[in-house]
Structures are given as structure tokens and as C-alpha cells.
Amino acid sequence: RDYLRHHRLPELMQRLAALLLYHRPERPREFLIQVLEKVKAGKRDESEYPYLMDEGNLEAMFSLLDVVDQGHIRAAQYREALKTLGLSTEDLQFEDDMSITLDVFKEEV
């Protein structure tokens, strides 16, 4: 368990499964190999990291969280959104009462 947690393998497996379900490729093994190659290259800053959501998806999600159209959400809302997406909240540097703008939301997610 410590090994899995240390290397963040549960999050990686969850992200890979989500990408598979989202894209539903004809050749899942080849797709996973390509995604893992992109992850590897992205870690070396050689290419873009493979994302499940595009900018439009993130804007739509933010607008659902910012129901009164204030232009920001609270960090607590942001944390819950990450949990809902199955993303880690361990390394968050935001206090619960801080405001998160759309730009920060897109950058961080």
C-alpha cells in the first residue's frame, strides 16, 4: 500500500480507466501504451500531458460551481470538484476560504 501510494499508482490507474471509457478506442492496449508514452514525455516536458477534459469542459464545470456568476469559487468547492473527478487533493495549497478564479481552476485541474 505504501508503495502504491508513494508512486500514486491508484490515481494513474483511475485516470487510465477514465481515458479508456471516455475515448473507447478500438485497440485499448495500443491506446494505453500511447497514453503512457505521453505521460512519460509530459513528465520530461517533451509534450503535452494527456487530459480527459478540454478547456470547454473545464469552463462548463466552473460555471456549474459558480452558480451566482461571481467569477470565482471557494477552495472548498474546488477541492470537492477534484474529489468528484477522482483527482488527488493531497497537494492542494489553498485554504478553504480562498477564492479560485476560472483561470486558476483551468490551470490547476
From TrEMBL:
The record ties this protein, via Pfam families, to:
EF_EFCAB10_C
* Gene3D superfamilies, alphabetized: cAMP-dependent protein kinase regulatory subunit, dimerization-anchoring domain
Q: Name one GO molecular function term.
A: calcium ion binding
Q: What is this protein called?
A: EFC10 protein
The EF-hand domain is annotated at: 53-88
InterPro entries cross-referenced by the UniProt entry? DD_EFCAB10, EF_EFCAB10_C, EF_hand_dom, EFC10
Positions the record marks as coiled coil are none
Q: The organism sits in which domain of life?
A: Eukaryota
Its lineage opens with: Eukaryota, Metazoa, Chordata, Craniata, Vertebrata
